């Protein structure tokens, strides 16, 4: 039987899928206008994950350092007893929820722990730097519909590796190129962007703001600024003054882009026809990542490409923008101001917390793996009682006292939106949960009702219906078709009306210098997404041996390494053994490692990445990590 469902993985493509439950085959829904009948391998091979031999399908309790199987009743009794005790000081409970699963029902754990007044996290490991930057500029988070890119004469892509992170945006780009749209990509290189770009410009990682400022300087020199555009901005004189005071050559040399390439980028923006600007998430994972995004947005604005078809600046939209909450339907508990611990330095934050953290609950997050300074997270998890809701014995599950096995996608229902497109999808449960796995919603509903002071949820259908009310989405249409298009104008900020109270655009008013490189760690470590896997959701069998890092043949480390000896990737935080390979057109001081490998296999770069904040949105500056390669 073929059933319409949808992917709930943390990916903007948010595909509508057809699952043949007899053949266990998965394909993209041809009726879904964005999915268009195809999906990536992570989606089409999801049964390998559901049926994996090493999947945890029974609750586990740790005793004397070893896990043993337990019934749900035994595991829940133990968890509830610990929680009831900890609730005497609600702040002593810490709830950590990640990007592992999303949706209307996916909010259940946040709602339950909010009602308990538990501590929570702030800060971000993903996209909040770029979101905050975009909101400072435009007043709200929005971009043109992704399909509008087909109207662009040219696309300027600031680093997004569509071959890995979004095959449906890639398909749109392929289609646009067939119709004559040209694509220029600016990135540190060594990625998949050459496959879909007419021109590639290699930039020193972390310095896009200087390149955008250099192009803006050429606009100033040319004097061809559109008065209508300037009229829609609040603080143009401040940005103009800032750029006037800078030398073109210095801007070029800071980002290590030649003046002729900067002139070419100016021509791409200034020529007739509209230009769409695409901004990667990579641009904002640097200490001045927010400023990078703001200067790129400023260029899209000054070039007259905001509020027009075929233009726009694509960072992302909020996947939850069309979905409401059902928290107000929950009975018991109360929502008070919660203590917040910084996510990207969670080890240190737990250690210094007063009152101390006694109980930690983690769901949908391989936190021990995905945040910097992982070893300190392991240390901080040692004393509190730790419950992890996950289905694999990954770096986080290993630190648990109790592991509760969740039903994964296709085994449980949810409804979710996308951070790229404008459709809301129904992720139907199409197969029974394996073994004793239970949906997260069911687990939280059960847990809440077992507490000494209970917190009770409505049934799941009531929650879904409530969540759909916000954007007036028809429940029946959603169930019938598997998706609903939510109306958002195809062009964002039409007539240049922005979200600030005065309706005007805001420019950045400062350009911070790039921090000095530590001469002992002259290379820059980029821990990029891998095409084959979603973050750390990597089968254990694929993690043998030292991980491969990629450098350019021009990298000073490459010539200095002796291939016959062991090689280590070294930062001030520590060292890990790696294999080194070369890749074309990568910036000569960049080192690429694909992220998500597990600590227990010596594959996790976060062990040697220091927690560093970005300038906006409390984001994580993973890519500002200095490093070196050496034989040992
Ligand atoms: N070094 C480095 N680290 C990074 C980044 C970087 O650039 N560099 N970027 C990061 C980014 S962009 C992100 S978004 C984060 C992602 O960090 P995480 O959110 O930790 O992502 P995953 O590694 O995919 O882990 C998600 C977990 O959720 C589990 N899961 C899946 N479905 C369900 C479910 O239905 N219920 C429950 N309970 N669990 C489920 C999966 O098995 C998996 O273990 O990592 C960040 N980490
Ligand atoms: N296959 C797969 N797809 C995914 C994910 C996954 O884990 N696997 N994760 C999803 C999630 S949660 C996210 S957030 C996205 C992330 O998607 P991407 O944006 O692709 O994320 P990154 O790998 O962090 O960075 C992407 C690119 O940024 C470029 N880059 C790095 N630094 C700079 C810079 O300073 N300037 C410029 N111009 N470019 C730079 C790099 O060359 C890299 O190719 O992907 C989503 N899609
Ligand atoms: Mo992300």
UniProtKB/TrEMBL annotation:
Pfam families: Molybdop_Fe4S4, Molybdopterin. It comes from the Bacteria. The keyword Zinc does not apply. Keywords: Iron, Iron-sulfur, Metal-binding. PROSITE patterns: 4FE4S_MOW_BIS_MGD (PS51669). Residues 1-54 form the 4Fe-4S Mo/W bis-MGD-type domain. Gene3D superfamilies: 3.40.50.740, ADC-like domains (2.20.25.90), Dimethylsulfoxide Reductase, domain 2 (3.40.228.10), Formate dehydrogenase/DMSO reductase (3.30.2070.10). InterPro entries: Asp_de-COase-like_dom_sf (IPR009010), Mopterin_OxRdtase (IPR006656), Mopterin_OxRdtase_4Fe-4S_dom (IPR006963), Prok_Mopterin_Oxidored (IPR050612). This is Molybdopterin oxidoreductase. It comes from Pseudodesulfovibrio nedwellii.
């Amino acid at each position: 039987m073929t059933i319409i469902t949808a992917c709930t993985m943390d990916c903007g493509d948010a595909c509508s899928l057809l699952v043949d439950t007899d053949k266990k085959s998965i394909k993209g829904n041809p009726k879904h206008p964005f999915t268009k009948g195809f999906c990536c391998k992570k989606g089409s091979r999801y049964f390998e994950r559901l049926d994996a031999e090493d999947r945890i399908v029974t609750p586990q309790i740790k005793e004397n350092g070893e896990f043993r199987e337990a019934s749900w009743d035994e595991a829940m009794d133990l968890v509830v007893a610990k929680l009831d005790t900890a609730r005497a000081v609600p702040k002593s409970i810490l709830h950590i929820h990640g990007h592992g699963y999303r949706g209307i029902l996916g909010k259940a754990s946040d709602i339950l722990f909010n009602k308990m007044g538990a501590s929570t996290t702030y800060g971000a490991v993903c996209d909040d730097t770029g979101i905050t930057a975009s909101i400072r500029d435009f007043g709200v988070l929005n971009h043109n519909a992704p399909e509008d890119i087909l109207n662009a004469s040219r696309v300027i892509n600031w680093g997004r590796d569509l071959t890995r992170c979004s095959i449906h945006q890639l398909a749109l780009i392929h289609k646009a190129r067939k119709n004559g749209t040209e694509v220029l990509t600016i990135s540190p290189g060594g990625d998949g962007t050459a496959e879909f770009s007419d021109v590639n410009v290699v930039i020193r990682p972390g310095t896009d703001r200087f390149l955008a400022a250099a192009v803006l300087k050429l606009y100033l020199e040319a004097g061809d600024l559109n008065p209508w555009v300037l009229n829609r901005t609040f603080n143009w004189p401040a940005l103009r003054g800032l750029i006037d005071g800078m030398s073109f050559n210095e801007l070029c040399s800071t980002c290590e882009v030649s003046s002729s390439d900067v002139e070419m980028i100016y021509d791409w923006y200034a020529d007739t026809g509209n230009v769409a600007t695409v901004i990667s998430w990579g641009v904002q994972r640097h200490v001045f990542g927010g400023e990078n995004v703001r200067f790129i947005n400023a260029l899209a604005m000054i070039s007259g490409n905001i509020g027009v078809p075929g233009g726009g600046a694509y960072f992302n939209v909020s996947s939850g923008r069309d979905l409401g909450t059902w928290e107000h339907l929950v009975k018991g508990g109360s929502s008070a101001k919660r203590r917040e611990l910084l996510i990207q330095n969670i080890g240190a934050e737990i250690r210094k917390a007063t009152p101390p953290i006694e109980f930690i609950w983690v769901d949908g997050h391989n936190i021990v793996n995905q945040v910097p300074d992982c070893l300190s997270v392991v240390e901080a998890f040692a004393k509190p009682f730790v419950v992890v809701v996950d289905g694999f014995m990954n770096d986080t599950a290993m630190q648990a006292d109790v592991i509760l096995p969740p039903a994964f996608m296709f085994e449980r229902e949810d409804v979710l939106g996308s951070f790229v497109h404008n459709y809301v999808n129904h992720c139907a449960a199409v197969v029974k949960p394996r073994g004793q796995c239970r949906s997260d919603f069911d687990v939280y509903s059960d847990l809440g009702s077992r507490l000494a002071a209970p917190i009770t949820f409505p049934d799941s259908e009531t929650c879904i219906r409530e969540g759909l009310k916000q954007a007036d989405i028809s429940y029946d249409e959603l169930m019938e078709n598997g998706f609903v298009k939510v109306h958002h104008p195809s062009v964002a900020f039409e007539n240049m009306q922005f979200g600030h109270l005065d309706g005007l655009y805001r420019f950045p008013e400062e350009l911070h210098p790039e921090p000095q490189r530590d001469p002992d760690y002259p290379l820059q470590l980029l821990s990029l997404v891998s095409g084959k896997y979603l973050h750390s959701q990597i089968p254990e069998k694929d993690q043998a041996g030292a991980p491969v890092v990629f450098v350019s043949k021009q990298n000073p480390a490459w010539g200095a390494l002796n291939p016959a000896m062991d090689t280590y990737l070294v930062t001030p935080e520590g060292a890990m053994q790696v294999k080194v390979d070369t890749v074309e057109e990568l910036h000569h001081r960049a080192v690429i490692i694909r992220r998500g490998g597990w600590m227990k296999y010596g594959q996790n770069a976060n062990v040697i990445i220091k927690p560093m904040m970005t300038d906006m949105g409390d984001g994580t500056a993973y890519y500002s990590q200095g490093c070196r390669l050496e034989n040992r």
